[in-house]
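Sanity check

After download, print the first record. It should look like this:
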Amino acid sequence: MISLYKRRSRFIYAAVVFLMVFAAIAYFYIQREDALDHKFFKTHAAILANDIWALNQNGADAYLQLAVKADYYKSLSVSIPGTETFISATCPPLSGLSLFLYKIRLIGVKKLSAEIIHGDQVIGILKGEKYVRVIFPLINILIFLLLLLLTAAFISHLFANRKFLEQEIRERTRHLRESERRFHDLVNLLPEIVVETNLAGDITYANEVAQKQLQLTSKRSSCANFFQFIQQNEREAARQNFQKTLQGEPSRLTELTAVDGNNRTFPILIRSTPIDNGVKVSGVRMIVIDITERRQMEEQLHRDQKMKAIGLMAGGVAHDLNNILSGIITYPELLLLDLGQQSSLRQPLEAIRQSGLDASYVVSDLLTVARGIAANKEIIAPNILIQAYLNSADFRQLQRRYPYIAVNTSLSSDLRNISCSPIHVRKCLMNLITNGAEAIHGSGTVSITTDNYTIPFPLAKNRHKVSTEHFSRIRIHDTGSGIAPEDIGRIFEPFYTKKVMGRSGTGLGLAVVWNTMHDHGGTVNVVSDEQGTTFELLFPSIEADLAPQPDRKNWKNYQGREETILVVDDEPRQREIAGQLLKSLNYTVQTVASGEEAIEYARHHAPDLLVLDMLMPPGQNGRMTFEQILKIHPQQKAIIASGFADDDDVKATLAMGAKAFVQKPYTLDQIGSIIHHILYSDCPANSACRNERV
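Expected structure tokens:
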């Protein structure tokens, strides 16, 4: 490669030098020709002087005709005082090669002028147009230089070829001397096992990898048989493949199971070829590839494909369930608004509503697994989320279920903030703490610790597949019996669980944890043994202040002033539910069934707020609909209400100006507080709109 590069460099240098020499010669030749043209033109003017003085028109004409033909003038003319053109001569039209070169401008025309002087008096002016035909002599010069260059190159090639042949002889001699050493070095550098055997399968050569992995010593390798390193039930297949190789059949990759010096089994691929010494076959040469890592990657790919399939299924199921649950949650809520506190129907209606909410939490887990849920993120301290869960009714219920399990905390006071979806992080904490409690038989401890954690960036990026090196870490440790080694690689798969389905959970808990951490740009690590299990959540930390917490209000404080709200949803049930909820909050509600209808409505009306569904097949989705409406009403306010949506579309819609995202099914408080905040918080203090609405 280096020799080829040097040759190319020499050719380039030679070409550059050649062009420079040719350019220099051409330049001086053109300058010389130009000077001669001016000199000869003045000579013509001097010769014509006597004929012009004597007004010998015939003599001057004859001379001009002769000069035009001899010196390739396009035209010559003589002017004298009082006469613009006393006499002139033109060259016949160009033809053949000259005409072609003239058309492509390789033959040019230059103008010349000289005074005709008789004595000391100027008696006329000679003007002419001369064909510049330097292309022909330049071509001759170029051909001559090329011949010189080719001659020099040929001579140089002869000398170089002689040196090359001498060098080749030396190199081949050196290669022959070093071939055996090179063979051993290369074979020992291979990460695979390389062995040679005799006709009986006894190992006659083994590279360093084979000696290390099969624990062969120089003495042992001389007496060890290759087949003793193949698993017992596969030795016959290995012997058959060995015999086929000796008989010269085409070599194929054979998959077997090997046994190393420590009796550890591992999958291998064997490729073999006969050793032919030119007279007869004396043995077999084999390369043995350990495919343990490949098997692991295949298993990982299989798990990823299964996760993707489950995610697609979960997304579709969650979308349909959310539409169904909207009615189960909302209609009891609307009925409860009109019932008195002593009504006998209040308790069953509240039970129905709570059942719907409980079902929506399971759907939320499905959406997290499907990774199609879009959630508003806010800046918050992880310690606040932990304390909020420990003060929640869910945690109190867990304590009542496991009274002999203590939950201890050690929370860092200087823990950095994170940007997250509080709902999803709280769900991760609840799942991991619940799993820890269920893993303990009898009494035990679940410990929660937080700290700031920093790892080198290359390690963070390559090992943890995250884009930062500073983390806020939450560690949850239990003193249970640990996770079995054969299960730890599958614990984050959806629906994979050792619990009793329906009593302890849905099998989505750790899948929710994994997807939540992935969506937050973090990672989750797990370490487990007989002493217990530790889950480590690493959230990318940020240097920013906490998000302000909104004041809690009763739904009656979210009453509107008959503002017009346009609900865009392709589901008739969803339009009816949203309409009744918003009407109960004193808003004027209009509903449409598609993005196209919403755009047409916006052409003739200006709603105060849009409530946009994101998925409305087969027409325009919520993002495209909002984009078109903004062209009609650039200041249009909107919120996104969806049960399942592409996170990228949601982010794009929020970036265009949508104010918030609310997940279906939503409650009266949720939708009411969001709309109230959007319609009234944008008004400046003491402004007319604020005084009118609040």
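If your output differs, re-run the checksum step. Summary of this record's structure: The longest strand covers residues 121-132.
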